[in-house]
Design brief:
This protein is mainly β. It is 10% helix and 53% strand.
Length: 366
């Protein structure tokens, strides 16, 4: 490692260790949905080979082939498939039923560029969630997200490569919660709603080691320091009239520290037709151990495999939240099409509240 790179390396390493343990509040992070990574068991910190490395590991920018994103549209829908089937078959009483469903739409704004150590982008996202639990709640949120970062190659000696990077970001979110006035048991209560705006900034840090283009180990801290200003209004009308409830409060996004590995399988008989064969494994958040009520550690284990045939067709499998995932991708040159189906756990332990989701992505990246 050159002497002029050593201060940067130790600064990034210290910041990675130190700021990951800053306390977080309750603001949800911004992550664009991805049908590719949903099929692979979620985000993998060791996999940063395209424009989506903006959300996997900022250390990847220096190794990504130049890629420009014009737009994308990714639609993710989830719901309790088996509970709905039970309701249709047995006419289950809604008053005894608990279920959650939702939709997550990323794009069409997805403009940016990644390559030569630089990663920049601007995105939009819309989410909606519907829940039944003795009553009905519905929330909807819209985000605009701007990000930019840089990575450097700290070591490149023979077959050993070590990269480090950072990513700065800013976002604006508008969210609304609605609760209808009628309970399932027929009782009435005041119609509740609020409108909330969140303005925040953030910092991601990451390091990545690669051996011979075959084995990769990566560590990334997402939202290492991400404060936010939260302003709440009693209704949307109060928001339009600039009449908030108080002067606003400060919060932050919980930091997440993930460790990932990837292994590229190479063999002469595979190289004829298989462009890429990757095995992936991650532990998604070590900082979850410090939560007052942590998730079951099994839910943070993520496994995935991707096979790319003739550089055009991709077949993917994964496990996340102790539930299976699968999907495929097709490169049509002018557009990439990705599709996945997978399970996600909304509870804190396996099997408590599993739901199933399907993602469809149309990506215009060149």
């Amino acid at each position: 490692m050159s002497r002029n790179m050593r201060p940067l390396f130790f600064t990034v390493l210290f910041a990675l260790i130190r700021v990951c343990f800053l306390p977080g509040e309750t603001v949800a992070p911004f992550v664009m949905p991805s049908a590719r990574f949903s099929a692979l068991g979620g985000v993998h910190t060791a996999l940063g080979d395209d424009f989506y490395s903006l959300f996997t590991n900022p250390a990847s920018f220096v190794g990504v082939e130049d890629q420009f994103s014009v737009s994308e549209l990714t639609i993710s829908m989830y719901g309790p498939v088996f509970e709905i089937l039970d309701l249709a078959a047995d006419k289950k009483n809604l008053s005894n039923m608990e279920l959650s469903a939702g939709v997550d739409v990323g794009g069409p704004l997805s403009l940016g560029w990644v390559g030569r150590g630089l990663g920049i982008g601007i995105f939009n996202r819309l989410t909606g969630n519907f829940a039944i639990n003795s009553g009905v709640t519905f929330d909807i949120a819209g985000d605009v997200f701007i990000t930019g970062g840089y990575s450097v190659r700290m070591i490149e000696k023979e077959e050993h490569i070590f990269d480090a990077g950072f990513l700065g970001k800013g976002f604006f979110r508008a969210a609304m919660l609605l609760q209808p006035a009628l309970q399932f048991d027929g009782s009435m209560f005041d119609n509740q709603q609020y409108f909330k705006t969140i303005l925040g900034i953030g910092l991601d840090l990451g390091v990545k080691y690669n051996y011979a283009g075959i084995f990769t180990a990566a560590l990334a801290c997402f939202d290492a320091f991400s404060p936010a200003l939260v302003t709440t209004y009693a209704s949307y009308d109060d928001f339009k009239n600039k009449n908030p409830l108080g002067s606003g409060t400060y919060g932050s996004i919980d930091p997440r520290l993930g460790l990932g590995f990837s292994y590229r399988i190479r063999a002469p008989f595979l190289d004829r037709y298989v462009s890429n064969f990757l095995i992936l494994a991650d532990y998604r958040n070590f900082l979850n151990f410090f939560d007052i009520i942590p998730r079951n550690p099994v839910l943070n284990i993520s496994l995935g495999a991707e096979i790319v045939v003739l550089e055009k067709f991709s077949l993917r499998f994964g496990i996340a939240d102790a539930l299976p995932a699968a999907g495929f991708g097709i490169d049509l040159s002018f557009m990439k099409l990705d599709c996945s189906i997978y399970g996600k756990e909304l509870g804190l332990d396996p099997g408590i509240q599993p739901v199933y989701a399907i993602d469809l992505g149309l990506l215009f990246r060149y």
